[in-house]
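Team,

Forwarding the record for the chain on the shared tracking sheet. I've put the sequence and predicted structure together so nobody has to dig through attachments.
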Amino acid sequence: MVRKPNGRDQEVVVEIAPEARESAKRITTVDEDLWTSQAEVFLSEFIWNDGDVPRSGRLVLKGIDRDSS
């Protein structure tokens, strides 16, 4: 759940694309903590850049941030 600027809560789902999973396997050890961290950073950056949560309530992570792996 994410609190929108208007004070309401909205559920946001971050889907991990298959190509992100494959890329991650090639560069690091993959566990659920990695995906949680990647999803949190991705969502935070989206909110920071757009000033709101995604209207659809869904984001698709298509790559891994190598700096946080």
